[in-house]
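Structure first, sequence second, as always.
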């Protein structure tokens, strides 16, 4: 029988002396979306290496499901939930990071970097006009907007934005007149960054209803990569994929540390782990290029359409009324990369899709993605992603 005396000093939370034979770890994440399910998978995979852990639970806080847990991993989405979790007197890790100053341990996505990634991607498509569809009252959404605006080097007042509470975006029965008027007021074309996929999907729905073409009039990028919902949208929604399983593992690590801390150990004032977003899953809602140079538009369209074939820059140049030097120079000036790098980027995007969603052997992944040699695939992948394709696959599989 093990005894743990756990104290967090300089926070609102203090842990009482407890006798724990088999720690009972409860998950209060909500499993009704891909975000919660992926985090739960990360926790469960970590827990498999902890034979003395008992992991259970589902749903939300105020559902009568709490049964004297020793530790909680939660998704606090209201101020009331955050306060209630802070007052429980047991180790709690929050994965939502929606409200500041709770004193809870946190494992969460780097939302400022997420906004920065969104801005960089939309800028790479050649847009000069930008908009933001946001969620009122949550810290993570505010951080995403800050990252987005900062990366654009534009003040809040210079980027048109439309924000409503999360429930407003979720509820299909509410009146959308104000959203319709805002979308109709946007200059054409505009790149719109949505705080999450719920916002992005609602905006695509309303654009279709009022005759705004996506992506040619308004391109839409979401966050979370709720893959099934994103694919079912018309047009399908591009989205920034988060490392949700990594967040789950990090939350379990924080909780494990709190449960294992010796009685005389003083905990840090606040324990948190912040993970960067993963990649951008490009779908129909952003498959466009806004540029005044027809040569650039033709080049990018050709490269994207033919990336999975055994082609090179010479094949591209053969389709254009310009020399290779001219093509390379103009693409570099417009997009900040060479045609070869652009072709490589499209191939890697598809390779990562295959790695994350199939059991296809690595040599088949390379061939299907347009790489002519497995060695070249390995080299490019490791240089770009910082790890081998096999390691990346283990970390990023969409299914357990």
């Amino acid at each position: 029988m093990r005894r743990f005396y756990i104290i967090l000093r300089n926070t609102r939370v203090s842990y009482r002396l407890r006798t724990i034979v088999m720690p009972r770890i409860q998950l209060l994440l909500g499993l009704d979306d891909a975000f919660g399910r992926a985090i739960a998978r990360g926790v469960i995979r970590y827990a498999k290496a902890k034979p003395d852990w008992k992991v259970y639970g589902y749903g939300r806080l105020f559902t009568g499901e709490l049964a004297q847990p020793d530790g909680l991993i939660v998704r606090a989405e209201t101020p009331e939930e955050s306060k209630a979790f802070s007052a429980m007197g047991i180790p709690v890790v929050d994965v939502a990071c929606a409200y500041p100053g709770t004193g809870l341990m946190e494992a969460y996505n780097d939302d400022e970097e997420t906004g920065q990634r969104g801005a960089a991607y939309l800028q790479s498509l050649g847009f000069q006009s930008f908009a933001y569809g946001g969620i009122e009252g949550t810290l993570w959404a505010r951080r995403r907007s800050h990252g987005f605006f900062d990366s654009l080097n534009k003040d809040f007042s210079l980027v048109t934005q439309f924000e409503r509470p999360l429930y407003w975006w979720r509820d299909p029965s509410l009146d959308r007149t104000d959203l319709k008027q805002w979308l109709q007021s946007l200059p054409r074309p505009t790149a719109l960054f949505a705080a999450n996929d719920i916002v992005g999907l609602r905006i695509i729905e309303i654009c279709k209803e009022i005759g705004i073409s996506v992506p040619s009039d308004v391109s839409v990028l979401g966050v979370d990569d709720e893959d099934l919902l994103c694919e079912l949208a018309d047009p399908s929604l591009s989205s920034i994929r988060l490392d949700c399983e990594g967040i789950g593992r990090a939350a379990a690590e924080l909780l494990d540390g709190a449960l294992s801390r010796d009685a005389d150990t003083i905990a840090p004032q606040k324990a948190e782990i912040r993970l960067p977003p993963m990649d951008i899953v490009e779908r129909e809602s952003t498959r466009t290029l806004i540029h005044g140079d027809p040569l650039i538009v033709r080049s990018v369209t050709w490269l994207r359409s033919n990336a999975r074939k055994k082609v090179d820059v010479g094949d591209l140049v053969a389709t254009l009324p310009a020399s290779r030097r001219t093509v390379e120079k103009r693409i570099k000036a417009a997009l900040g990369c060479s045609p070869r790098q652009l072709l490589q980027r499209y191939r890697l995007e598809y390779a990562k899709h295959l790695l994350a969603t199939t059991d296809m052997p690595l040599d088949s992944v390379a061939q299907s993605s347009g790489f002519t040699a497995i060695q070249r695939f390995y080299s490019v992948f490791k240089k770009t992603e910082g790890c081998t394709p096999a390691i990346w696959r283990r970390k990023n599989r969409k299914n357990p």
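Margin note: The chain has 16 helices and 14 strands.
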